[in-house]
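Please check this record.
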Amino acid sequence: MRHPIVKVVSQGGCQSYLVGCPETRACLLIDPKVGLEASYRSLIAQYRLKLVAVVDTHTHADHLSAAPRWVGDEVTLYMSKHTHVDRPMTRLGHGDALKVGSLRFQVREVPGHTPDSIALYWDGGEHPGAVFSGDSLLIGGLARADFRGSDPVLLWEAVRRELLSLPPDTVLYPGHSYDNLLFSTIGHERDTNPDLAYPNGEAYAAARGIIEGAGNSPAVDQVLGLNMERDPHFPEHSAPAAACCASPGQASSVCEPTRIEGLELKEAHDGLEGPRQWVDVRDPFEVEHGRIPGVTHIPLGELGFYLDHFRGQDRVYISCRSGVRSMSAIRTLQRLGVCSDPVNVEGGILAWQALGLPIEGQPAR
């Protein structure tokens, strides 16, 4: 079974996802954000996908949802059957299946952050699956539960019941990440997430001192109101009205990675024991234009399906176009404890080319 195509689109701590079927190229857009429409269109075209569905995992209070701008004759909006959003949509209940090409996602209700919160689970069978958790289970914490209609006890219980019961190697794609992390796994969150270490939901709520409605600032109420309208008038761009993690300042357990640049690039490449030791995390359409010879390509958003690729290796070199995305990959792998010494290739393939080193295909752009 081939895993989904996954492209993570991040801005201001908000995570949205393009999830595509590798066989049919049909794709799903999860939790789209106002202001990123041009990026979504460009990625859909570059990945050669066809958008058929949009999902809002809940009624957003922190940012404006771009879902209304996508819905039409060929694109369906999906939300929970418990939502009060006044738009044409297909309503999903617990256990329902959402099909995108040959991909099948199971709907799991995880109320607490909002009454209409859902997650989408793709079962990978013998291979790692994936869950798109929206604003319920986040990396290293739970979502806020101090908005009107929130319930921290219900949130804690729903996450434990519906998400932590998934296989431990399930890749967790949350609706928010505030620490430059791409994903986690269910097993890692089960073992390390401090918000899930309490004996029960009541203990969690008491320890956090959560008060319902305390999070509803005027900005939050304005965003929430627009996101519930049938035909809202949205600005072209919008900043988040609030952070949605219960512990947004929580530091992740990562160290400063090793870096290489300049002539060290060739020395490192010449000393490789095999292609598994150097991973290029650029998008597939970038690799088509040029790649460093003999390296492995794993797209950034899909690294979670390949964690076994990195296990047991003392040193792995990770590169991208310029060194930014590779740093996100390294931080994520370090937090998961998968790779002891990941090395960031400073400058990426652009630095490699600048040294006049060999390229397979055309020069990178």
